[in-house]
Amino acid sequence: MRGLPITAVYTSPLQRAVESAKQVCAGLGIPQCPQVAEDLSEVHLPGWEGLTYQEVHQRYPEAYACWKQTPSLLSLPTAEGSYHPLCVLYHQAHCFWTRILTQHKGETVLLVAHSGTIRALISTAVGVDLDRYSQFQQSNCGISVVRFPEGEVRACLHSFNQTTHLGESLPKLKEGKRGLRLLLCPANDSLSYLSAPLAWNGLDMFLTSTVPDTTSFLQELQREISIWQDVADLEPNVLTVLMLAPSALIVAFLAATFALKSVHIRGMSVIHCPHKSQAPILQSFNIALESLPAST
User: Which residue in 35, 143, 211, 272 could disulfide with 162, CB within 3.0 to 4.6 Å?
Assistant: First the structure.
């Protein structure tokens, strides 16, 4: 982010977020003081706060399953009645964009917030339904960029959950170190970029796509993913597969799998498929191959 013409910094009111925002500003030489925005607060989960997700899973298995599979339907009891945390969070994110886009037309703005809030911000910006909430991973200190064309209220996802600045080649797996991890790279990228950085990443398979049209590619890739997941379910560790494909076909796959319609492929996408019964998770998007660390 160094060198970007950042004109404003907004942060969640939580103290740890405020401190993080101050440190980022100091590190990047940004003179502006972070402004606290109440609508960047983390999702409120009555009855769950203070518990680990494992504890929530054990105590409230049905509500936890709803949280993971159909978050728009999640309802938690409060003294005032039923509370729908994800619906409130997405409305909060929408209100933030409505306010900020008017105030900062044509500017670059930095937001420091929480995992759930960032996912809600990105989803509302690019038009992804909230029931895909669990399909987007947000890592600690992961950086995402959305760009709003002039006069538009719908953004283009430029990059998502970048963690190479932390010395990570790929984002850490948050849904367990099992299943299938699929690395999709544009076929026009030089293989010299890929060989060294990914050799030590436990790459299990390397493929290229020869399917000429989008429909056939999506059908073939879904079949391949199903086969790889059968194999991965028998393995103690994650199975990592690298596939080179034309950018247009990768765009089609991201649209079909994550409802991402306004994207431009410039780098590698990372998808984790923990289990056949679980929807794929976008770990990162548009990782610049030349930015990958040379070793771990």
Answer: 143
Mean pLDDT of the chain: 89
Amino acid at 109: V
Pairwise CA distance, residues 42 & 239, whole Å: 33
Instruction: Kindly report the CATH class assigned to 6-43+84-135.
Output: alpha beta
- Extended beta strands in the chain, E state: 6-11, 35-36, 76-78, 81-83, 108-112, 143-147, 156-162, 180-186, 203-208, 239-245, 268-273, 281-287
User: Can you tell me which residue has the tokens 């996912």?
Assistant: 119
- Quote the tokens at residue 56: 């929530």
Residue 277 has pLDDT above 70, yes or no: yes
Closest listed residue to residue 272, CA positions, set 180, 164, 205, 192: 180
Query: Which among 236, 220, 231, 12 is positioned nearest to 110, based on CA atoms?
Result: 12
Q: Over the range 178-203, which residues count as b (16 or more CB within 10 Å of their CB) and which as e?
A: bbbbbbbbbeebeeebbeebbeeeeb
- Cβ atoms of 36 and 15 within 8 Å: the answer is no
Label residue 198 by pLDDT band (50, 70, 90): low
pTM of the model: 0.92
Nearest to 97 by CA among 58, 127, 135, 67: 127
The number of C-alpha atoms within 13 Å of 173 and in the hemisphere containing its C-beta is 18
CATH of span 164-291: 3.40.50
